[in-house]
Amino acid sequence: MSSTKKVTLWEQFCGLEEGKTYNFQNLQVKKEYNSNGVYLSTPKTGCTITEVEPFSQPLINPAELPQNFTNTTAAAEILGVRSVTAYQACCNCNKKLVIETSSILTCSTCGLKQNMKSTIQQCYVQLLVQIKESKITVTLFNDILHDVLASQGKSTLPLTEETITAFLLELPTVTSITFNNKIVESVQI
Ligand SMILES: [Zn+2]
What we know:
The protein is mainly beta. It is built from 2 helices and 13 strands; from the N terminus they run E-E-E-E-E-E-E-E-E-E-E-H-H-E-E. The protein has helices at residues 142-151, 161-169, and strands at residues 7-8, 22-25, 28-31, 38-41, 48-51, 72-74, 77-89, 104-106, 113-115, 120-131, 134-140, 176-180, 183-188. The strands form 5 sheets. The chain has a 3-stranded mixed beta sheet with strand order 1-4-3, with no helix packed on it. Strands 6-12-13 form a 3-stranded antiparallel beta sheet. A 3-stranded antiparallel beta sheet has the order 7-10-11. The longest helix is centred in the last third of the chain and has 10 residues, at 142-151. The chain starts with 6 loop residues before the first strand and ends with a strand. The protein binds zinc ion (ZN). Zinc ion binds at residues 90, 92-93, 95, 107, 109-110, 112.
């Protein structure tokens, strides 16, 4: 019998290569908090992964799996705002810039020198939401936060901790969110 299961790998095992076949020994079975699904994960100790001969029969292609295999959509209510992080990002590589007193900002990642006006404002938030019986913390990155702002006609709202916190707490009840591994991918209000 064969089927497909999601596996979460901890850092020390992340050197595995796509397209190769591995034999896993001693994986843990874990239950997803929000569904009846189960997934596999590497325990802290005792797990071994060895490369083995590839299968000779064709296998299901992970790219053909339905999106709901990894995404969950559920009714959600915002209980509170855990954090709002606003920062200026490099206009070339999009990485966070350290704001200095000098008017010329040098990106520590790609080295680009730029003025404040060239930088891109970014913001991400962590929300505590109620989903069924569970309270979980989910993250909305910049693009999703902007979608939510736009849906409420607030695209021009300044991205500060105060304004964004107030905006999120004044939202009408969120009807549903789609998320994957606690990262929100869409919000329906
Ligand atoms: Zn950069």
